[in-house]
Amino acid sequence: MSYNLDTLYRQVIMDHYKNPRNKGVLDGEVLTVDMNNPTCGDRIQLQLQVEDDIVKDVKFDGEGCSISMSSASMMTQAIKGKKLKEALKMSDTFSHMMMGEDIDMEELDLEDLGALQGVAKFPARIKCATLAWKAMEKGFHEE
Amino acid sequence: MDVKAIREQFPILNQEVNGHPLVYLDSSATSQKPLSVIEAVNDYYRHDNSNVHRGVHTLGSRATELYEGAREKVRRFINADSTAEVIFNRGTTTGINTVAESFGLQNLTIGDEIVITPMEHHSNIIPWQQVAKKTGATLKYMPLQSDGTVTLEDARDTITANTKVVAIAHVSNVLGTINPVKEIAKIAHENGAVILVDGAQGAPHMKIDVKDLDCDFYAFSGHKMCGPTGIGVLYGKKEYLNAMDPVEFGGEMIDFVNLYDSTWKELPWKFEGGTPIIAGAIGLGAAIDFLNEVGMDNILNHEKVLADYAMKNLRTIDDLTIYGPENRAALVTFNLADVHPHDTSTVLDSFGIAVRAGHHCAQPLMRWLDVTATARASFYLYNTTEDIDHLVDGLLKTKEYFGDVI
User: Which residue out of B333, B340, B345 would a mutagenesis test of the A interface target, given it has the greatest number of A Cβ atoms within 10 Å?
Assistant: First the structure.
């Protein structure tokens, strides 16, 4: 298998794809955001339970490729328990990573996310990786 | 047909992608361009570039001759009666929108019906949704058989005396279904309706005779038939085009302009507002010369061989779902078990194989198939059975790579 592919499909990514964290639906009063990628049909529903400016709980549901679903899984893990501001900052850092820029990995606060760094080398797939993050941003801006 | 010699006319095919020879299987999205087309556009810009229909100077005459010469080539290619029936535009989407906006809004009202099918490309759905919303007409869908075909019986049941427009793809860009448009045109006419054929996937691959099909409108794109992007054709019967209002107003399309009213040029220029796509039309003319030289019947036969070969060999892959009928145009849409088509496409790309992944601008059809997306390999005159062998190999490697997901 070519070197290229393995920079994209890291084991961590496949693990999140096969065993997504925080997948499902939240009960009670939650913020729900639907977002899709009109070019490919990937769709995500993100549910956020925010209290006192803090992400108390978060779940996602949807259909998509390994990159979009694993990114969603990692994102939910990364922002759980974070302040909205911190989560948005993380999203910003993540977009910079997708543009292939050098970033401080510690700002992402979840080691697994580093596995998505390789996506930057596959321009056609960047939108897959950012879908869940865009949904999160949209949710917070609505809030 | 000497495919090796044909391939030599397509310089783009002679390259490596990700360390592998390019296997281009995305011609339904856009075809590659032969040298003669690239050179025709190049020559025009180097020697003849000028605006058409206005300059008295020599370059103006040359450009006009080339542009109108291309129109005549299109006329012969589709066997239209007159160049008045050949309108140059930006592509199939523009052609359908012109008919919807002009014919549709002018002629439809509450109680009238527009009949389409669930296999249509978005560009043959949304313009009709808009017409229905604006006029109060009803949009109706002909049902599909489980293999993604339409039957004439269903066509007869769906098309009624209230139907004013039938709009249908000649060939489905997802299923590869070749629709019986000639027979459906007859049914439409028996009910007093006009028929528009979306020829985006038809004109590049088979001989089109608009008189034999007896379709009232036939829209297609140059870039899918070896021509440049940005040029397309709307064929329409003169009797309809004459009665239709233009949809774009401005330069080129006028006769007299007064302070408060204006009159239009005759056909086809009435529908060509603004400086036309001159280089694109000339490139399309060169593409038609190229296709004619190879022979449309030869192309169709070659593609039939490829389609059969692809079906036979792809079927040997376990867990590969193929969508669409047995008898099909030269494209195969599929999904490999639970591997998302984006992932399939990325893995194939790593082997230099270009396929399309996504909803193919046919979301209603994706829902009918009960999938969110699919991958599609589509073939053209420059493809070979070896290309299909590479595809099969690539899919087997994809399966191996995503083995534990499947």
Answer: B340
Quote the ipTM score: 0.84
- What's the pLDDT score for residue A105? 82
Tell me the pTM: 0.94
User: Which two three-digit tokens encode residue B63?
Assistant: 């450009």
Residue B363 with chain A: CB contacts under 8 Å: 41
Q: Do B375 and B341 touch, CB atoms closer than 8 A? A: yes
Taking an 8 Å cut-off on Cβ atoms, the answer to whether A18 and B405 are in contact is yes
Nearest by CB: A65 against B19, B342, B359: B342
Query: What range does the domain containing A27 cover?
Result: 3-142
- Mean pLDDT by 10-residue block, N- to C-terminus, for chain A (143 residues)? 72 92 93 88 92 95 94 96 94 94 84 90 91 94 78
For residues B123 and B129, give the distance between their C-alpha atoms in angstroms, rounded to a whole number: 10
What integer pLDDT is reported at residue B404 of this predicted model?
Answer: 67
User: What pLDDT score was predicted for residue B248?
Assistant: 95
Do B357 and A40 count as a contact with CB atoms less than 8 A apart? yes
Q: B120 and B198 in contact (C-beta within 8 Å)?
A: yes
Q: Do A65 and B358 touch (CB under 8 A)?
A: no
Residue B35 is encoded by which pair of tokens?
A: 């040298």
**B chain contacts of residue A18, beta-carbon cutoff 8 Å:** 404-405
Place of tokens 């004619």: B292
Q: How far is B349 from chain A (nearest CA, A)?
A: 10
Q: What is the DSSP string of B197-230?
A: EE-TTTTTTS---HHHHT-SEEEEESGGGTS-TT
Residues of chain B with pLDDT under 50: none
Question: Is A5's CB within 8 Å of B346's CB?
Answer: yes
Instruction: From chain A, pick out residues whose CB is under 8 angstroms from the CB of B358.
Output: 39-41
Spell out the domains of chain B, with CATH numbers in brackets.
Answer: 3-26+295-405 (3.90.1150.10), 50-293 (3.40.640.10)
Domains identified in chain A, total number: 1
Which are the catalytic amino acids of B? Answer: 361
Residue-by-residue DSSP string for B86-147: EEEES-HHHHHHHHIIIIIHHH--TT-EEEE-TT--GGGTHHHHHHHHHH-PEEEE----TT
Residues 6+ apart with CB under 8 A from A134: A35
The candidate with the shortest Cα–Cα distance to A97, out of A81, A109, A83, A80, is A109
**Does A5 sit within 8 Å of B401, measured CB to CB?**
yes
Per-residue pLDDT at A33: 96
Q: What is the pLDDT of residue B141?
A: 98
